[in-house]
Amino acid sequence: MGYINYKKTRSVITDLTVENAGFESGDVSWTKETNFSIGVYGVARTGTYSARCNEVGGVSRSLLNSIHFPAAEGETFDFGCYVNTDASWAGASARCFLQFEDSAQVFISNAPGSGITTASSGWTLSSDTGVVAPAGTGYVQLLMSSIGQTAGNVYFDDAYITNDYNRLNPDFQQFKPAHQDNIIENASRDWVNVETIYLGRDKAYEVKSDIVDVSLQPQWEEFWHSVSGGETFALDATGTEAAPDNPLTVKLVPRSWRIEEIGPRHHVYSFKVRVA
């Protein structure tokens, strides 16, 4: 049983790619409730396609993007979409929402963007900034809604999410060393300085997820993307985070990261590290 600990400060806003954000690929990546449709209606902010809701029964209807973006408690998000009501539209509001889910993609709560409440709105941005993910967040999703609509049409286009989160904190405490030491060079000419000799070794590790830990795959992938460029992290092959035996500052060996799916609910991650 060992642990990996990695923390990285982010100083830039990251654009999360909302797939088919402008609806130019039709229904791809969107789940439509009744009376929502996607097509060419002669009303689009960009391109030729938009989404339309023509509910007349006063029932709230939504359009949900299928991408679940990995997220964590305390991260901050900006999000939005453009909304356009026609001259006959009537309802409580039309707006964009950011939906928070737990690690099993179960709904936690919604954060509403600004609401459009009048007919003939023209293309108006429904949005919010600096929205903080609540406790238990594992994912976020974007959705668009027409609330209490009783007449007319409302159109949606050009959705986005950005993430301005401060720290990546994966803490992985379950891995076992593989039996492999690859001596690629010896930095000590006199073979006396053991510390220096160890600097010339790559150590190989294998991580097998528990069933309950498969939900950590997005964090593993984020970890890999973050350290593949040479970022350092702490690794202890035999200790635990609470009481490490011999934590080392290491770097990922380039091109050594592997992911193997050994079943629908297990993954194996293997990698090599080098003492930094």
In summary, what is this structure?
Helices cover 6% and strands 45% of the residues. The protein has 276 residues and is mainly beta.
Structure description:
By secondary structure, this protein is mainly beta. The protein has 2 domains: 14-165, Sandwich (Jelly Rolls), CATH 2.60.120.260; 170-275. The chain has 2 helices and 22 strands. It has helices spanning 194-198, 217-227; strands at 3-5, 8-9, 14-16, 30-32, 36-39, 50-53, 61-65, 69-70, 76-85, 93-101, 107-112, 124-132, 139-147, 154-163, 167-168, 171-172, 176-183, 201-208, 232-236, 248-252, 258-263, 266-275. The strands form 4 sheets. Strands 1, 16, 17, 18, 19, 20, 21 and 22 form an 8-stranded antiparallel β-sheet that branches. Strands 3, 5, 6, 9, 12 and 14 form a 6-stranded antiparallel β-sheet that branches. Strands 4, 7, 8, 10, 11 and 13 form a 6-stranded antiparallel β-sheet that branches. The radius of gyration is 24 Å and the shape is elongated.
